[in-house]
């Protein structure tokens, strides 16, 4: 695969004459400033840090020859600051506006949590310091574990998994361990509803299970009869998201749990949507055996443009022994870390060290700020906001299922039938209105899905503006103004990008330009 | 509650618009017995900022921060100086509070960062292509093994005795549940094992770590050739990314996959996480990679832009046929890595690596002069193993009492084994007087 050699522009438009797109000399448009790659700003010998000379000693590399060159660009500190500041200005963020991505829970990220995560007693602690010197960090993990167990009603929790999908892996490993401990090795299937997140089947398959899909009923829930028909001695477990990805509470959940348990299988809950019920409903009371929690969703640790996440997993009594290492226990001299699995039912390690500590601090800071009363209010407001959006849009858009919904509301593209406008077009036009789009084309159980999750941290005025913008777009689509939608977005740093070209001839890194003299020699 | 904008009047008017009698009524699909009647018991109620600061501040004060004392811990997590610029820039809300860049028109910032990150990782490791990050080095290592199994259609991985035990265990956990063989060789402090002799027709890959968990540096060029001859892949793990500023890159040695921990650049110790896994491969394996990839393209106006690409490998498209179940990765830690590396640049990264190595040589000499202490490795970067006349765990505890964090006892990583070995790391943050204090305290503790 060749890099940067497909004749695509490898730099910003030349700073001469008038830029064809912006009409300006520079190609800039006011506050939107074109920014070259960092590699295109290199000056050999320039450096953004000042370091002392290395002591003069003979190197001791065991006969290995030092490398000649890395190939990184040299920039001074102000250039680096400006580079990343300009890049940041090309991003939409929850700090700048409503970010209604369904199933992603983009809520306000309090800065107190950032401050707490940077306390030296949490942030500047090495994971392998003697236990006697890390009691504060261990106490924080233990306190977080207490909150998570209390909020879910579960018997045990592991903080080890690095993100939601990693937590799913952990939960499925626990289920497998429990079956194996009983000598029950004939269970080869995991059942997953059609509406599930892609990570669910991917996780089950990665753990060696065959995945079988459970259809949905006309009201957007798991088809209990279809589930019962699939349950048998070959089923290890059910992976179910609740509230589900249609934004609905699985109202037959107790019957689902009973059927799963009756077949000798375990009930895994994908906790991605826990924000809808946190502080009001304990998953243990729903018959769930194991559930991961995305701290970066429900407990507001920042998404950071794609991580880091953190995916603690809670276990009911039945699965509580089957946890990975490490975990914190209360010892005679304070908190202790159990770091090796030993002979017991606990299984091995899932990552290096003890979990995403920086995320634990942020999540606990969020929990303490809200308290039990604040979490009750937060889940209530999250559900109220979603129902308000649904109520105010359902005369112009087509809601897929009857409400009430939980923390998110699902529409499909029936309202666009015959207009020539697609779900994608609506999303792109919404960007020009100053909003991040909702989740599109997911879940897969409805056609052209638009899944809206406003979260509890939006004001009514903010929601009203979003709703009015969507109403105007729905009406515009019905008026036949297809060209407007297909050309959107127009006001962004970049317009629609050619994803097909990107995948056909992947350019995945910058490469140094071929020197002019070498080209001439060819 | 300061994070909730709805007023009671808002709630009432919204309920009227929905035609619902109360918020509780919206939860009518929840089985009655499972819906609590009020806030959950056993937890405190809401607190103001000041109260949270007091509470967590008091908790944090019960730990001894590594930076408050002379500290020599490594073993996969290193305390480097992170320029103030890094933490300022990663806290810009447009980076901090953005989601995965699924809408490229309003995510060019994150996407360009990822494209630059991928390039930096490729340059540093000497590989063709890198992905947009993994959770950490250990999970990157396990994913590398699974990728090698897919590429070679074989299922036996050989794990070097120099591989960090946490990386080894992460890989063997996956091996047990996912169904492949991971043959872990005995610990090899001096770096003398013969890996080439272990390769057979069933071997999908050999995993080595350079420098090893014991600090030993080796050249794996011959092993790469041996792997190639037998149709196995060479996976090189790096836990101290700064070493790549001085040591020959794995790509140059012939590595097929590099799985590394990037924490050293831009990221604090954080008691072990979040860190950033680096994953780089040869061109021909791109479509077998796990994780996200950012690629260059053009927009409707013909201008250069960036998108997530080759998503047909990933779980949200392929579901049970995906190359990995990974979704969220380590975006913000990758940004911190990238900014730090941009500040360092060519000159900074090479000079910082030299500085770390020179300080390690100095400390090795100082510790070797302590009666009864000897250095195990003949070649190292900024970390090495010393042999003590007493069990290292007790020595480290006694040093901690003297407010010196004197390294990682090898027995912490290998319970019940090699209890006289101590792993010692040095970085630019350690002063000459730190090193002298360490040598002096060690002399006292051992006498």
TrEMBL record, chain A:
Entry GO MF terms: glycine binding; glycine dehydrogenase (decarboxylating) activity; pyridoxal phosphate binding
Disordered: region residues: 1-20
Recorded catalytic activity of this chain's protein: N(6)-[(R)-lipoyl]-L-lysyl-[glycine-cleavage complex H protein] + glycine + H(+) = N(6)-[(R)-S(8)-aminomethyldihydrolipoyl]-L-lysyl-[glycine-cleavage complex H protein] + CO2
GO biological process: glycine decarboxylation via glycine cleavage system
SUPFAM superfamilies for the chain: PLP-dependent transferases
Residue ranges constituting the Glycine dehydrogenase C-terminal domain according to the UniProt record: 379-476
Annotated EC: 1.4.4.2
Keyword list, A-Z: Oxidoreductase, Pyridoxal phosphate
GO cellular component labels: cytosol; glycine cleavage complex
Origin superkingdom: Bacteria
Residue ranges annotated for the Aminotransferase class V domain, each copy included: 188-304
One Pfam family per UniProt: GcvP2_C
Known function: The glycine cleavage system catalyzes the degradation of glycine. The P protein binds the alpha-amino group of glycine through its pyridoxal phosphate cofactor; CO(2) is released and the remaining methylamine moiety is then transferred to the lipoamide cofactor of the H protein.
Listed NCBIfam families: PRK04366.1 (NF003346)
Name of the molecule in the record: glycine dehydrogenase (aminomethyl-transferring)
From TrEMBL, chain B:
Keyword set includes Cell wall biogenesis/degradation: no
InterPro entries, alphabetized: GcvPA, GDC-P_N, GDC_P, PyrdxlP-dep_Trfase, PyrdxlP-dep_Trfase_major, PyrdxlP-dep_Trfase_small
Gene Ontology biological-process entries: glycine decarboxylation via glycine cleavage system; nucleoside metabolic process
GO MF, one annotated term: glycine dehydrogenase (decarboxylating) activity
CDD domains xref list: GDC-P
Oligomeric and partner information: The glycine cleavage system is composed of four proteins: P, T, L and H. In this organism, the P 'protein' is a heterodimer of two subunits.
Protein name: Probable glycine dehydrogenase (decarboxylating) subunit 1
């Amino acid at each position: 695969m060749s890099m940067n050699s497909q004749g695509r522009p490898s730099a910003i438009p030349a700073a001469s004459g008038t830029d064809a797109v912006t009409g300006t000399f520079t190609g800039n448009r006011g506050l939107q400033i074109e920014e070259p790659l960092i590699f295109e700003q290199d000056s050999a010998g320039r450096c953004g840090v000042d370091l002392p000379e290395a002591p003069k000693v003979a190197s001791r590399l065991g006969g290995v020859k030092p490398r000649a060159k890395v190939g990184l660009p040299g920039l001074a500190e102000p250039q680096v600051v400006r580079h990343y500041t300009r890049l940041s200005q090309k991003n939409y963020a929850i700090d700048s506006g409503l970010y209604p991505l369904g199933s992603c829970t983009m809520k306000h990220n309090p800065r107190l949590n950032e401050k707490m995560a940077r306390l030296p007693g949490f942030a500047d602690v090495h994971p392998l310091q003697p236990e006697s010197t890390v009691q504060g960090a261990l106490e924080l993990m233990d306190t977080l574990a207490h909150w998570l167990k209390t909020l879910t009603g579960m018997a045990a929790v592991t903080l080890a998994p690095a993100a939601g999908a990693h937590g799913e892996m952990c939960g499925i490993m626990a289920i497998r361990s429990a079956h194996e401990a009983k000598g029950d090795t004939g269970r080869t299937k995991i059942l997953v509803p059609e509406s599930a997140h892609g990570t669910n089947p991917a996780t089950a398959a990665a753990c060696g299970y065959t995945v079988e899909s459970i259809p949905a009923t006309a009201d957007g829930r798991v088809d209990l009869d279809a589930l019962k028909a699939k349950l048998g001695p070959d089923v290890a477990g059910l992976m179910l998201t609740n509230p589900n990805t249609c934004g609905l509470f699985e109202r037959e959940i107790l019957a689902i749990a009973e059927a799963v348990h009756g077949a000798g299988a375990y009930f895994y809950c994908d906790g991605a949507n826990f924000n809808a019920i946190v502080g009001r409903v304990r998953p243990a009371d729903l018959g769930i055996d194991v559930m991961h929690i995305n701290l970066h969703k429900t407990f507001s640790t920042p998404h950071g443009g794609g991580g880091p996440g953190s995916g603690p997993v809670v276990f009911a009594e039945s699965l509580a022994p089957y946890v990975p290492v490490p975990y914190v226990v209360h010892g005679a001299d304070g908190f202790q870390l159990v770091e090796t699995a030993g002979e017991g039912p606990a299984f091995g390690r899932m990552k290096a060290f003890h979990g995403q500590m920086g995320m634990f601090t942020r999540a606990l800071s969020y929990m303490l700020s809200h308290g039990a009363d604040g979490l009750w209010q937060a889940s209530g407001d999250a559900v109220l906001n979603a129902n308000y959006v649904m109520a105010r849009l359902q005369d112009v858009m087509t809601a897929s299922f009857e409400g009430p919904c939980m923390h998110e509301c699902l529409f499909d593209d029936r309202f666009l039938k015959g207009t020539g406008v697609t779900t994608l077009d609506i999303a792109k036009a919404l960007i020009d209105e100053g909003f991040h789009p909702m989740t599109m084309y997911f879940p897969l159980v409805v056609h052209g899905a638009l899944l809206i999750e406003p979260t509890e941290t939006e004001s009514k005025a903010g929601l009203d503006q979003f709703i009015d913008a969507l109403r105007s777009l729905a009406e515009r689509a019905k008026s036949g103004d297809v060209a407007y939608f297909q050309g959107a977005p127009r006001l962004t740093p970049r317009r629609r990008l050619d994803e097909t070209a990107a995948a056909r001839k992947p350019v995945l890194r910058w490469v140094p330009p071929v020197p002019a003299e070498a080209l001439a020699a060819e | 509650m300061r994070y909730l904008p709805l007023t009671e009047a808002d709630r009432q008017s919204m309920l009227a618009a929905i035609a619902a009698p109360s918020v509780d009524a919206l939860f009518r699909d929840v089985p009655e017995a499972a819906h609590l009647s009020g806030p959950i018991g056993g937890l405190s109620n809401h607190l103001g900022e000041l109260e949270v600061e007091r509470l967590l501040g008091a908790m944090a004060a019960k730990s001894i921060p590594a930076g408050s004392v002379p500290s020599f811990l490594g073993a996969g997590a290193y305390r480097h100086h992170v320029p103030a610029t890094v933490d300022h820039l990663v806290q810009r809300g447009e980076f901090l509070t953005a989601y995965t860049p699924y809408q490229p028109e309003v995510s060019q910032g994150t996407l360009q960062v990822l494209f630059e990150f991928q390039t930096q990782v490729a340059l540093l490791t000497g590989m063709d292509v890198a992905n947009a990050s993994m959770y950490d080095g250990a999970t990157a290592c396990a994913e590398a093994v699974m990728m090698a199994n897919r590429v070679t259609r074989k299922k036996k991985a050989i794990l070097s005795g120099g591989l960090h035990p946490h990386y080894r265990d992460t890989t063997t956990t996956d091996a047990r549940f996912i169904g492949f063989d991971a043959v872990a060789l005995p610990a090899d402090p001096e770096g003398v094992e013969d890996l080439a002799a272990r390769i057979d027709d069933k071997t999908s890959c050999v995993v080595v770590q350079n420098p090893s968990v014991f600090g030993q540096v080796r050249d794996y060029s011959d092993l790469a050739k041996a792997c190639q001859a037998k149709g196995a892949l060479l996976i090189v793990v790096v836990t101290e990314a700064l070493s790549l500023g001085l040591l020959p890159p794995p790509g140059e040695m012939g590595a097929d996959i590099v799985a590394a921990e990037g924490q050293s650049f831009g990221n604090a110790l954080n008691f072990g996480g979040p860190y950033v896994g680096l994953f780089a491969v040869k061109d021909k394996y791109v479509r077998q990679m796990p994780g996200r990839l950012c690629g260059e393209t053009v927009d409707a106006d013909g201008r250069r832009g960036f998108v997530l690409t080759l998503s047909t490998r990933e779980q949200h498209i392929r579901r049970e046929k995906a190359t990995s179940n990974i979704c969220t990765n380590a975006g913000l830690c990758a940004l911190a890595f990238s900014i730090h590396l941009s500040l360092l640049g060519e000159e900074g990264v090479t000079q910082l690596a030299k500085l770390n190595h020179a300080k390690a040589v100095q400390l090795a000499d100082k510790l070797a002069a302590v009666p009864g202490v000897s250095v195990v490795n003949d070649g190292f970067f900024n970390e090495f193993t010393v042999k003590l006349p007493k069990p290292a765990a007790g020595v480290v505890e006694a040093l901690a009492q003297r407010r010196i964090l004197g390294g990682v006892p090898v027995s912490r990583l290998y319970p019940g084994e090699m209890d006289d070995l101590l792993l010692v790391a040095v970085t630019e943050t350690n002063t000459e007087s730190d090193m002298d204090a360490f040598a002096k305290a060690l002399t006292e503790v051992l006498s």
